[in-house]
Design goal:
CATH architecture of the largest domain: Roll
CATH topology of the largest domain: CBS-domain
Number of domains: 4
Helix content: 25-40%
Number of strands: 20
Largest sheet: 8 strands, mixed
Shape: globular
Strand content: 15-25%
Structural class: alpha+beta
Radius of gyration: 25 Å
Distance between the termini: 62 Å
CATH superfamily of the largest domain: CBS-domain
Oligomer: single chain
CATH class of the largest domain: Alpha Beta
Length: 424
């Protein structure tokens, strides 16, 4: 049996720069893989509408100078590894710094974004690249909070808070002016060709919208590649016609998996658009407690908040430290319905404060939660009507509100998404 390594050309695929940096770079030599180093940057040229990657900058250990590898030698590239095909007899040359070269990690990341009116819009947290037909181009600038979290290795938290890429502030590169010749590591800005007011109009299409444009077979092929949480969110966001077609085409065990990540209100939102007989069959697959809540939501017109409350959220004492809270997020929040807030309680369960996840990430790890929490927390009663909750959400703009009893003990949390699912 031959031991030669087979190199397969990559299909068109998009990456974020933060996913590629530090990837292992190997080369095929004599049918075997040999370590070259780690990817530390990408050099681009701006000859076309979308800058093209022309060289990989590969760092090496033991103080050796980095290498400059033409992108034409890249056989495949992925977040964890790039495979090179170096022509026989060719030696990779060392990288020599030249101020005329544009390195996107070194020179573009963390630069300010300036619009046509000279307003500072945001900061470049990440770069999105498209690899297709043996070439790689810069296609988007990511200025979103999700991009910032990805850079801080909290990308999983961004996906929990906002879902897949559809919710991020990706700016198409066509709105970016050619990079200035004096751009350097510590100087220069990235300027736009549009004003700040128009930025909101250029967000990418929602994943659910993409599915709606596909044929039935294509839709299921794409949907089957999604992880459980992303699939559940996408199913919820899709229009009723697509929801019905996806549910009809899905295996029952797959659908049960999705339901396990959803609240009763979200499940009810799916079941109510299905034919009655299909809805009844699926309701029998639910855990008893969830089935009761779903039945209440589907059958009772005057629903109380108790029916859509969730107990899957993070609660910590005020003495806990910010670093400990972030560790809890890493370990636990994949199981939670509420990931945008941390609730602080006393020993007897009394709600004493709340912390937005953004404030938690920005705090020093040794800061006690009681020092950064908000004590004036807007709350709801379990007997409040849906309309009362809707008013509170509208007035304050929160994405979740805690439910407390007459003694202010924390009973659960209602999310704005679940409220909408019930009231729509």
């Amino acid at each position: 049996m031959s031991s030669e390594v087979q190199v397969v050309k990559a299909e068109p695929v998009a990456f974020f720069l933060s996913e590629l940096i530090r990837a292992r770079v190997v080369q095929v030599r004599g049918g075997k893989m040999e370590e070259v180093g780690r990817l530390v940057d990408l050099e681009i040229t701006q000859n076309g509408g979308y800058p093209e990657v022309v060289n990989l900058i590969v760092g090496r250990s033991f103080g050796r100078a980095p290498l400059e590898v033409p992108f034409s030698m890249v056989a495949s590239i992925a977040p964890h590894r790039a495979v090179l095909e170096v022509p026989g007899g060719m030696t990779l040359k060392e990288f020599a710094y030249d101020p005329m070269k544009t390195l996107i990690k070194d020179m573009v990341l963390d630069k300010k974004i300036i619009d046509t009116d000279d307003y500072e819009v945001e900061v470049v947290y990440d770069i999105r690249l498209l690899h297709a037909e043996g070439r790689m181009h810069v296609v988007h600038v990511d200025v979103s909070t999700a991009g910032m979290l990805r850079r801080l290795h909290f990308g999983w938290l961004g996906r929990l808070l906002w879902g897949p890429i559809r919710d991020t502030d990706l700016l198409p590169w066509r709105y970016v002016q050619p990079l200035p010749s004096d751009l350097g590591r510590f100087r220069g800005d990235v300027r736009l060709t549009i004003s700040r007011e128009k930025i909101a109009d250029i967000h990418p299409a929602d994943l659910a919208d993409i599915l709606e444009e596909l044929s039935g077979d294509e839709r299921m092929a794409v949907f089957d590649t999604l992880d459980t949480e992303t699939a559940a969110d996408t199913l919820e966001e899709a229009e009723p016609r697509v929801q019905r077609e996806l549910v009809a085409s899905m295996r029952r065990d797959r659908l049960v998996e999705l339901f396990q990540t959803m609240t009763a209100a979200q499940i009810a939102g799916i079941l109510e658009i299905l034919p009655r007989i299909d809805s009844q069959v699926l309701r029998r697959l639910l855990p008893a407690e969830t089935a009761v809540k779903v039945a209440e939501l589907l059958n009772e017109p005057d629903v109380e908040l108790e029916s859509i409350v969730t107990n899957r959220f993070l609660v910590l004492p005020g003495t806990a430290l910010a670093g400990e809270a972030l560790s809890c997020f890493r370990d636990r929040t994949r199981r939670y319905d509420v990931v945008m807030y941390v609730y602080i309680t006393s020993q007897d369960g009394t709600l004493v404060g709340a912390i937005d996840i953004r404030e938690l990430i920005q705090a020093e790890e040794t800061t006690p939660l009681r020092d950064i929490m908000t004590e004036q927390v807007v709350t709801l009663s379990p007997k409040d009507a849906l309309a009362d909750a809707a008013v509170e959400f509208a007035d304050h703009g929160f994405r979740a509100l805690p439910i407390v009893d007459e003694n202010h003990r924390l009973l659960g949390v209602v999310t704005y998404k679940d409220l909408l699912a019930v009231m729509k």
